[in-house]
Amino acid sequence: MLPSCAIYEKYNNINTGLVNYNEKCQELQGKFHSTAGVYDLCKKLAENLNDICTKEKMDDSLIYNCLYLEYWLNLQIIEKFRITDNAKYAGLRSQFYNTWTRSFSSLTGNFSKCTPKRIPFTSLNYSNVKDIKDMYDYYYNCEYFKKNHSLTEHERREYCSYLSSMNRSFTEFKNWCSDSSNKCIPNLKNSIDQYDPKELRKILHCNTDEATDTSLGVIPDQRGLEQNASQRYNELGDSPGSEPFIQPQDSKTSNSALI
């Protein structure tokens, strides 16, 4: 699977029986009596935070993993609870972030290593959150491709297929970054042309007769990447010149703020 997919799969499949945050997660569930699943998602968040903060060093890889955990949490909220309006999304998001930054942090000092960076979901309609996530996934995967030069032939062909599949999406990304849209991530705002999938295919020496599926993010066969992607996904952390999608924290917050 793709490097970005490996991270999300790891977060989704975390073992929730290792760390005891039952009381804090029960408190969070109690705030949403009619919303099933809050407790379970809270437990997954706690386990992933514990895993990241006890294993990762204080370096760029920690920043990237924390950032991806924020994307994962927001997408889980939208998909798991079938969000169809911004008010419900803002309410759930705010309470999950409060539990993350206050309740969990009060139990262990380790969690202070991984705190939300206020990525600007608050300025987006809930329906646009996945677009931002897809754009960042693309950026992350491209940086990974450029950094890892010792690819097997099978991996190279798989990555080439992925880049072909992203032609249509890249056109959308470029449009978002060329107007006043708030959907363009800072990493691509002034360098979008450097991530043209056609140009990146040249770097990987992709052949023109390879698969050219144009559906969003679809790869004909990902099995060849599954064994090593999850082991190498955090190698992007020290890629030269790249910065994670992090916005400075505002001094003022509205009632839709993350925290």
Automatic annotation (TrEMBL):
Regions of compositional bias (Polar residues) in chain numbering: 248-259
InterPro entries: Plasmodium_Vir
Region (Disordered): 233-259
Name this protein carries in UniProt: PIR Superfamily Protein
